[in-house]
Amino acid sequence: MPDQENLEQMIHQLYNRHYLEVYRFLICFSGNQNDAEDLTQEVFMRVLNNSSTIPSLINVKTWIFSIAKHVAVDHYRKKRFSSLFNDGFFKQFRSLEKEPNEIVEQNELKELVHTAISRLKPHYRAVVILRGINEFSIKETSFILQCSESKVKVDYHRAIKELRKKLDMKSVEVIENANG
Asked: Would you call 83 helix, strand, or coil by DSSP?
C-alpha cells in the first residue's frame, strides 16, 4: 500500500481523471444536479475508503463506475423516486444556432425521450445510460452492473425495444391531440 502522500496524490489524480464522467452518469441516473453532486462525492469517498484495492485493479475506471452504480442504486432505493429524471436535465441543452421552432421541436423530442427513459425498469435504465449514453462496452457494462455480458446484450436490446414502443405510443398521442 502506498504511503499517505502517494495515496493522496493517487486519489487526487483518480478524482481529476474520472469525476466528470461519474458526475454525468449520476446526473443521468438521478436527474438532479444536487443529488448527482452528492452522489459523486459519495463515490469518491468509497474509492478513498477502499483505496487499498486500487493498485491491484486492471481497469480502475470500470471499478469506479461499479461503485457509482451501487451508490446510485442505493440512493434510488432510499428515495424511491417516482421519476429518476426531472425537467431540468434536458433543459440545459440549448442551441443558439437553431430557429425557435426547431428548438421547440427538439425540446419536445427530448421530453418524449426523457419520459420514456424514466419509465424504464431501473436495470434497463442503467443499461441504456451506460451503453447508449456513456458508450461503455458490453464488457465494461457487465462489470459495472455485475451481470453477464449476454444479460447486458439482452437487457439493452429489450430496453431499446421498450423505448421504441413507448416513443411510438407517445407519437400517436401527439398526432391524435394535434388532430383533435
From this structure: coil
Sign of the torsion angle spanned by Cα atoms 91, 96, 99, 100 = positive
pTM (predicted TM-score): 0.54
Residue 75 grid cell: 440512493
- Our measurement of the distance from residue 87's CA atom to the centroid of its chain's CA atoms, rounded to an integer in Å, reads 16
pLDDT, tens digit, 9 for 90 and up, residues 6-61: 777 888 888 899 989 999 888 888 778 888 899 999 998 888 888 777 656 568 88
- Residue 87 is placed in which grid cell? 425537467
Using CA atoms, how far apart are residues 41 and 23, in angstroms rounded to an integer?
9
For residues 61 and 82, the answer to whether their CB atoms sit within 8 Å is no
CA distances from 164 to 37, 117, 138 (A): 31, 10, 21
Cell of 79: 428515495
Structural Rg of the chain based on CA atoms: 19
- Nearest CA to 112 among 85, 81, 82? 85
Give 56's DSSP letter.
G
For the chain, the residue count is: 180
Q: Please tell me the number of Cα atoms within 13 Å of 150 on its side-chain side.
A: 0
C-beta separation of 64 from 43 below 8 A: yes
The answer, yes or no, to whether residue 81 has pLDDT greater than 50, is no
Query: Which H/E stretch holds residue 164?
Result: helix 149-179
